[in-house]
Amino acid sequence: VNPLLVYLAARRVARCPAPVAGTLPPVSMIVAVHNGAALMAAKLDNALALDYPPAQLEIIVVADGCSDATEQIVARYGDRNVRLLRLPEHRGKTWALNAGVESAYGELLVFSDADALLPAEALRQLTAPFADPTVGGVCGQRVIGERHGALREAQARYIDLDSRLKEWESRLGTLTSNDGKLYAIRRALFVPLPPAVTDDLFLALAVVRQGRGFVFAPQARALIPTPSRGAAHELERRRRIVAASLHGIRLQKALLDPRRYGFFAWRLLVNKVFRRLLPLALLLVMGGTLLLLPGHSWAWPLLLLQLFGYGLAVSHLLWPKIGMQPPPLLGKVSAAGFYLALGAYGTLLGVGDFLRGRQPEKWTPRKADGV
């Protein structure tokens, strides 16, 4: 329902031409990394090749308690406008980003992950909307560079749908979400990140609380590997993100007041709170259906429909075990169902962690393939 309302509201807003930036503002790109030696050379070569005046761009790599060769690799770029900030202890991404911002000089702060590679024009596209003084932050668009495998395809379709929603929301003046792979905010609007929040959502909401818009620049692309390297990784990732994002929203709960923030408050409530309760709603529907079976014959088709859907999701795991290759369409449907079910379970665990006050403070990225 919420995407439909956002779409209908966005259609009533005239599409504004993208602002054209004059003098390019000084930018500080901050990359927080923990044991990212395998990624750093490619990331820094990519950042230095961006079509942006070198005198207006500094690159700060915050090594968050690295025990591999990350620091040595970054140090080789010290004469090319790359600064290494060493943190002796691994304390998490929010801590690392706060430290990076403290040492930054740029008028705009650009945050990008170590595994995100940017096309040459991405930084210009990301900073162009700041020519509008009402814009306080800009979200780039993640694009999966590799689309091999069923789970990867399901993730790519999810990201495509999320990007469409961001485009509609952006026409309304501000987003209810952000993407940590690539985003930027005005330095004057930065607020220190508390522990156990998702930095991208928390800073986007902080921009909105200060009366500025947070918009989407789909041309500012970040090419990334598949976010989840396997089922266990997706479960862990979804659980952490849900718990941390709900914690961040609780810290900025004033944004949920429609008297002050109007339609944005409703969109935030639906997109970031109610949506996280869908797995619980599915459990209640199943429980209610079972209770209705004895005296209501119409409940049987409803039960069979639910079992059929969950069966499709489970079949994604069974095909390889029985040595069979499903028909292409059935394979895609079962993979999508499995991805949704896995995400729902991870979301349920994340909501449980949030309600119990269990908040992960350390950020330990996992980029290798796994199950």
Entry summary:
With 371 residues, this protein is an alpha/beta fold.
Description of the structure:
The chain has 371 residues and is an alpha/beta fold. The chain has 12 helices and 7 strands. It has helices at 2-11, 37-48, 70-75, 93-102, 122-127, 150-171, 199-209, 231-251, 258-272, 278-292, 299-321, 328-356; strands at 27-33, 57-64, 82-87, 108-112, 135-144, 182-186, 213-224. Strands 3-2-1-4-6-5-7 form a 7-stranded mixed beta sheet. Strand 2, helix 3 and strand 3 (82-87) form a beta-alpha-beta unit. It is globular, with a radius of gyration of 22 Å. It starts with a helix and ends in a 15-residue tail after the last helix. The mean pLDDT is 90.
SS-based structural class?
alpha/beta
Q: Helix count, per DSSP? A: 12
- Largest sheet strand order: 3-2-1-4-6-5-7
Topology, number of strands:
7
Strand content bin: 5-15%
- Radius of gyration, taken over Cα atoms and rounded to an integer in Å: 22 Å
Q: Indicate the low-confidence ranges by residue numbers.
A: none
Please describe the biggest sheet, giving its number of strands, its sense, and whether it closes into a barrel. Answer: 7 strands, mixed
Overall geometry comes to globular
